[in-house]
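Researcher: Going back to the complex we discussed earlier. I've cleaned up the inputs and rechecked each line, so this should be the final set. Can you rerun the prediction on the complete assembly and write out the structure?
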Amino acid sequence: MNEPLNAILRRRIKESGAKELQDWEFTSAMQQQVLERLAREGESGAEERPHRAARRIARPLVWVAAAAAAVVLAISGDWGSLRNPLQKQDAAEESTSSAPAATSAPLRTMKSSAQEDVMQSAGAAPHDAAKSSAPPESQQRAEQDDNLRVSPAAAPAEPPEEQKAFRVMDTGDVSITSVQEEMKMKGNYSAQSVDAARSPCQTLPSVFACFGTDR
Amino acid sequence: MQEHGTRVLHLAYFYLKDRHLAEDVAQEVFIKAYRNWDSFRGDSSVYTWLYKITVNLCRDKARSSWWRRMLPTEEPWAKSEDPVLPQGEGPEEAALKSDQHYALMQQVMRLPEAYREVVILFYYQDLSTVQIAEVLGQNENTIKTRLYRARAMLKELLVKEGVER
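Model: Rerun complete. Updated structure for the full complex:
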């Protein structure tokens, strides 16, 4: 019983399939496409293979190096100093007050870059050119400087070295230093508190103020 | 390639039910075969190996969401308006025969994939149950069971038509 059924199914499925798919063959055009694709992939594969191999080797090395760096940083526990180099700067200021111009260099660099940003956004020339031409705006800034600068009368009596440092440093630094001195006098001085005092200078209006009072 | 190409093409068509997709797959089969020629151990015949690649590629394509959207929803063996009349047959006989062919093939294409592939490989591609087991990566007994069930499903249709009693 199964045998005739098998025969019938085979015949009818074959006939039906042949009817539906007649004249549809794997042509030489398809064969050509296969060969072209193989040739193309062979060329590109030969070029990409060394890159791929190099990447495969380099990827774990990068991860290992990154992990090792993270472990070293975590063990050394020096995150704070990396995060805030100004703390170190303040410590150096304290120890070497005789060389204030040199120690205030990083802060000045920060400020001068902020100035350049502000000037570029305002379409003005760099501050050296502005200083040489001395337009009326610079006079206004000088007035603002005077307003913002701590008057010698209000400032506490300082040793001559400290006063020298005042003149060399920017008015922004002067105000920070005065806060620093006040804190020292009150006895709650720390690098973080100095940073807190310095931070208003990072806001946009105070950046303008710093810009206006620079030298 | 020319020798096995058409058989691979037709097998892919029975899986994907679309000629263009089947052509793409057939090309991919030969590219894959060329790339992996070193892995062909020669335990089986070349066409069994090619069928295995074809089946795997078709399954992958049918599973991927992009291809599922591309696959046709209508039956490929839908009854055509103007069937080709075989020579030596009257129009009535030819129409009846054509109807029967289409009905059977439609039934085959509606079978679940596990049964359809066995039916196509056994009846259309003339593979033995051992070869089908090799191509599909299944036990021969599993293939025999599937073939038996598929045959039972198709028998119902034939009984309705009055061919098999």
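Model: Worth noting: The radius of gyration of chain B is 17 Å.
Researcher: Good, that matches what I expected from the previous run.
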